[in-house]
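During the second half of the funding period, the structural biology subgroup turned its attention to how the target accommodates small molecules. The most pressing case was 2-acetamido-2-deoxy-beta-D-glucopyranose, which had performed well in the primary screen but for which no bound structure existed. We therefore specified the complex as follows and requested a full 3D prediction, including the ligand pose.
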Amino acid sequence: MPSNECNLFCFHLILLLFLHCSSSFISHALDSETDRLSLLSFKDELTDDPLDVMSSWNDSVRFCEWRGITCSSRRARVTMLSLPFQKLGGTLSPAIANLTFLRAIDLRGNVFRGPIPAEIGRLFRLRSLLLMENSFGGEIPANLSQCTQLEIINLNFNSLIGKIPTELSRLPNLVALHISANQLTGGIPPVLGNISTLLNLSIAQNYLGGTIPDNLGQLVNLQFLQVGSNNLSGTVPLSVFNLSRISIFGVAFNRLVGSLPSSIGTSLPNLKQLLIGVNGFSGNIPSSLSNISSLQIIDLPDNQFVGRVPSDFGRIANLQRVNVGRNLLGRGDSDPLDFINSLINCSKFEMLGIDNNHFSGPLPDKIANLSTNVNRLLLGGNQIPSTIGNLTKLFELRLDGNTLDTNIPSSLANCQQLQLLNLSDNDLSGPVPIQIFTLSSLTVTFNLARNFLSGTLPLDVGNFVNLKELDLSDNELSGSIPHSLGRCLSLEHVYLQCNSLNGSIPSSLSSLKGLQDLDLSRNNLTGSTYLSFCKIFFLQYLNLSYNQFQGQVPKNGAFANRSAVSLVGNGDLCGGSIELELSPCSVPTDPVGRNKSYLKVVITAVSGVFGSAGMLYIAISCILKRSRARSSLAFPSSDWNSNFSYRELEKATSGFSSDNLVGTGSFALVYKGLQSQDRRPIAVKVLKIQEKGTSKIYMAECEALSNIRHRNLVKVLGCCSDVDSAGRDFKAIVLDFMPNGSLEQWLHPEERNVNAVNDLNIFQRLSIAIDVASALEYLHYYCHIPIAHCDVKPGNVLLDDDLCAHLSDFGLAKFLRNRVMYVDKLKAVQLEYEDQLDMLLQV
Ligand SMILES: *[C@@H]1O[C@H](CO)[C@@H](O)[C@H](O)[C@H]1NC(C)=O
Ligand SMILES: *[C@@H]1O[C@H](CO)[C@@H](O)[C@H](O)[C@H]1NC(C)=O
Ligand SMILES: *[C@@H]1O[C@H](CO)[C@@H](O)[C@H](O)[C@H]1NC(C)=O
Ligand SMILES: *[C@@H]1O[C@H](CO)[C@@H](O)[C@H](O)[C@H]1NC(C)=O
Ligand SMILES: *[C@@H]1O[C@H](CO)[C@@H](O)[C@H](O)[C@H]1NC(C)=O
Ligand SMILES: *[C@@H]1O[C@H](CO)[C@@H](O)[C@H](O)[C@H]1NC(C)=O
Ligand SMILES: *[C@@H]1O[C@H](CO)[C@@H](O)[C@H](O)[C@H]1NC(C)=O
Ligand SMILES: *[C@@H]1O[C@H](CO)[C@@H](O)[C@H](O)[C@H]1NC(C)=O
Ligand SMILES: *[C@@H]1O[C@H](CO)[C@@H](O)[C@H](O)[C@H]1NC(C)=O
Ligand SMILES: *[C@@H]1O[C@H](CO)[C@@H](O)[C@H](O)[C@H]1NC(C)=O
Ligand SMILES: *[C@@H]1O[C@H](CO)[C@@H](O)[C@H](O)[C@H]1NC(C)=O
Ligand SMILES: *[C@@H]1O[C@H](CO)[C@@H](O)[C@H](O)[C@H]1NC(C)=O
């Protein structure tokens, strides 16, 4: 080729290449710009970003480098938007539909609300859409069916309504459809059976009615079927029991009926979990289940199964749980429990539930040889005398309602992880072995009610520091109620009625601030009923009847509520509220009504201040006049500030210098400081975050304080929840500074390392008592929701310049909301069904 032509040709070639490249360059640049704008629209729709994730989405770097963005390397188009668990709130902008190269969206675990934009249907390259654990509402957009590449849809745990769109059946590549835990209605569309690629189908915890369609039997690849906790009825189609790849078969909590096919062992050879509890299934438990070597969980409580439990479950090496409780099994069988013998071969075995059936006869000795992994044994409601072995990992043992007629074996104390022990309603006798009282692991209940147990309640009962319920009622226990019971600070329900206990109610019970039910009726208890008033507020049920209590009955708290308290059958009680219909006490009656008893208790509590009991009556009459006059003086709420930052407080206290440290407690350090704007003195109470329970205290205190204003309460200027300079959590409460310290320091000056010779005179003391009483009166009667401070003591009474007293420290305060009884019942039900709930969560 001649060189000119070559040059010309080359020139054209270069020109063409250049033009081509530049035009494609320009068009790429435009496409990229669309992506950038779409992302900015996405950002614009966000309203919450507490972790400040989106600050990286700025123009200092290309959008491909923004947090959560992945681009294709060649064209710089967005292929992935991934911001899971970032606490992002707001709506999802439809503009993401312009990110046409998107293959994956992962926004799970945020707080998105509003609809899932139907425009997502335009993302024809999308393969994976993960929006679970948000608050998306509205319907599932049918337009999703246009994303023909979609393989995974996960919308679990949102608030989606409406029906499951039938259009989803057109997704030719769908592998996983997870739409559990929403509010979907209608039924399961039969056309879902057309998605032959489907491996996972999870639509549990919705309001779906109707039946399980036969068409689902066409999903020959299905491995995971979870339709539990809906309102499905009818039988499970045989075709569905025929899906040979199924590993998890979850249909629990519906209204399904029919029996399990006897061939289930051959038709579901890959089954791991059979979850069919709380339905109306009937018939026998097929013995072919023992042929499924992959089985781990057989869970079929609350059905109508009859007959025997197959005796060779022990062949299933991986078996972990068998729960057949609350069925009709075992009736008329001579050896109905021999299946337990076979289970000893299952080395991973954890849980056996056979309660509330018709099992009878001796519990096989081999129960002691079950795997040491066993942690729950539910045997109640049958007729089986028992020996329990060395199941040291047991955390729940229910043997209630059997006919156990031995002593309680002390070896039970080896079960050091036991949280729940229920041996009630048996024929157990003898003393409760003292070793049992070493089980500080008990948290839920220790229930030995309705047996024939004798002996005394040992001091060691104080080991139950985390226990909620103690029920030893209807036995033959004698001796007194040990003082150490006051150490069991978690107790909410204590039932000791119908024994032969004597002595008085230990004053330590007043430490049990969470106590709701206390039944001591039908014992031989003596002494006064006058318990600490703070505690009494939480009692909803107090039964002291048929004892030998004497003296004055309080008028407050539980005693004020006729329906909550029972006192009959005590010879010598007087006073109390009118509804109790007791005779008046012989001391002069109170002319002023309820306020007096409050104030009297307060005065009694600080009577050390007065030193003289004779002052009491003078004090009371003074207080009654003055507290009325003062109690309505409230602070304006305008200077409440929840936004103190760590920096401000650091500055105010000169970097939390030890010179400014004015107090230390087990939960907090208190610093003096000066507010930067107005040089006003403040007290900064810094919580020791690392101490257990501190954040609960902070919440209680902030909640209480943001709701109350009174001149005799320490004025709170704000709370601070921030991170310190090292990035650790920092929580503090900012209060008005009280220059005269606490009443404690005045009463016991030796403890404050001060050579103060100041002593409070009687008028100052009286005034302080009045101030405290006014504060309490306000908290109990005039707050929107009554508040119990629960920690009134001189150390928490602070004095200002004028020695006016201010109550502080609301860390243990409780709102006396109307507690709802059925919550406890729900809790009990939940405990029963914990297993099934666990399983439903695998959606
Ligand atoms: C912009 O983003 C970069 C990281 O992408 C970040 O380092 C920088 O701090 C951000 N700028 C602003 C003003 O937030
Ligand atoms: C998508 O981009 C086009 C033009 O680039 C624009 O007109 C449209 O509003 C965008 N769509 C959304 C939903 O933002
Ligand atoms: C949903 O799909 C239909 C049919 O293709 C279309 O007409 C409509 O515009 C789409 N809706 C949205 C919001 O993209
Ligand atoms: C489901 O598939 C069957 C064939 O297997 C077809 O006849 C039917 O139209 C499909 N249904 C839908 C709604 O696509
Ligand atoms: C399908 O379900 C199984 C069992 O829960 C799970 O391990 C797997 O990740 C799921 N697959 C998809 C694609 O969601
Ligand atoms: C369950 O379905 C039945 C009809 O099969 C209906 O009567 C009932 O109201 C439904 N229950 C709920 C809670 O939706
Ligand atoms: C179950 O599967 C077997 C063999 O795969 C087949 O013969 C039978 O017809 C199926 N039954 C149903 C109800 O689908
Ligand atoms: C278990 O499988 C064996 C063969 O593997 C078979 O002979 C036996 O009948 C099966 N048992 C049941 C109860 O189906
Ligand atoms: C338990 O395993 C042993 C040894 O593998 C075997 O001999 C015995 O038959 C098995 N017992 C049961 C009940 O399966
Ligand atoms: C139970 O434990 C004791 C010792 O703690 C041991 O002697 C006994 O053999 C164990 N019993 C069984 C059945 O494992
Ligand atoms: C049960 O455990 C005891 C003590 O460990 C042992 O002697 C006995 O052989 C075991 N029984 C069986 C059937 O494994
Ligand atoms: C109560 O004590 C009296 C004597 O103090 C005694 O006679 C009576 O049997 C005791 N009652 C009970 C139930 O223990």
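Two results from this model are relevant to the next phase. Residues 596-634+738-843 form a domain with the Transferase(Phosphotransferase); domain 1 fold (CATH 1.10.510). Confidence is low (pLDDT under 50) at residues 1-26, 587-641, 752-757, 818-843.
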